[in-house]
Design goal:
Elements (H helix, E strand, L loop, with lengths): L1 E6 L6 E6 L2 E5 L6 H11 L6 E5 L10 H10 L3 E3 L1 H10 L12 E3 L5 E4 L2 E7 L11 E7 L2 E6 L9 H6 L3 E5 L4 H5 L5 H7 L8 H11 L10 E5 L8 H8 L8 E4 L9 E2 L1
Parallel strand pairs: 3-4, 4-5, 5-6, 10-11, 11-12, 12-13
Antiparallel strand pairs: 1-2, 1-14, 2-3, 7-8, 8-9, 9-10
Helix pairs in contact: 7-8
């Protein structure tokens, strides 16, 4: 399998995983469907080779108009929880009727699903409120390899630790630096939500979770970790790396996904 991050942040989130001539888009939020298609081609994946769009939750930076356009154009389904789809429809008329046209396949939380050649395990995560629907993290398996993907959390539930440990590749949110968030001009209610149990993960929280993932004494660990969804105002890549690098074994690769630029293409 191969993996690429095309965008990661509150202005839009798009990633892709693929093998051979079959691939999955993961989230398709705000932005242009044409720019997503162009970025996919530049990464070596033709949009015609997509077989689905995995959507984590209903916030517009993850589930937006590009998802509807790409699903319709290429005849592929959005794969998400029913409550996430309904929450997205309440926010945007653009998304209504996709289920009636067969453009949505509903996933259950904490369950295994098979979609074409991909095995998808969903994990419930605490993020957002009613407007987010039912947020999910994903473990995607194919050809003996596994990718863990979760960008919006608030806190890391215990069941995600073994899910990450058993993956070859982990993309995990590391949204804000605690000191930058506290000293930011954001209003108190926003700071309280971001730092609360349904908001986002701090660098410290991500470091603590990954420290648990890489505890000694287990038979399997990830080989690569990518930090995603960094705040534009309240984090910096070098701060996230400084918090998390000491919690990882030296041989494990650590990367930060850029907000507006495609990452390198990684082999899983």
């Amino acid at each position: 399998m191969r993996f690429v991050v095309l965008a990661s942040g509150s202005s839009g989130n798009v990633s892709a995983v693929w093998t051979g001539d079959r691939g999955l888009l993961i989230d398709a939020g705000t932005g242009s469907s044409k720019s997503i298609e162009t970025a996919l081609r530049e990464a070596g994946l033709r949009p015609e080779e997509l077989c689905g769009i995995l959507v984590t939750h209903a916030h517009s930076d993850h589930f937006g108009r590009p998802a509807r356009i790409i699903a319709k154009k290429y005849g592929i389904p959005v794969l998400t929880h029913r409550e996430t789809y309904l929450a997205a429809c309440r926010r945007s008329r653009d998304l209504k009727g996709m289920d009636e046209r067969g453009q949505v396949r509903f996933l259950k939380e904490d369950a295994d699903h098979l979609h074409e050649i991909f095995q998808i395990r969903t994990h419930s995560v605490p993020h957002g409120g009613e407007e987010a629907g039912r947020p999910l993290a994903f473990v995607i398996r194919c050809e003996g390899r596994a990718v863990f993907y979760s960008t919006d959390l608030g806190l890391v539930p215990p069941h995600l630790i073994p899910a990450m440990r058993e993956a070859d590749f982990v993309l995990l949110e590391s949204n804000y630096d605690e000191e930058m968030e506290e000293n930011s001009p954001r209003p108190p209610f926003l700071k309280a939500w971001v730092t609360g149990p349904t908001g986002h993960l701090s660098n410290g929280q991500a470091a603590e979770a990954l420290g648990q993932v890489f505890e000694p004494g287990h038979g399997r660990y990830p080989r690569r970790v990518v930090l995603g969804h960094l705040s534009e105002d309240c984090n910096l890549p070098h701060l996230a790396i400084a918090a998390i690098r000491p919690r990882l074994p030296g041989h494990v690769e650590l990367h930060v996904a850029a907000r507006h630029e495609a990452s390198e293409i990684w082999d899983v």
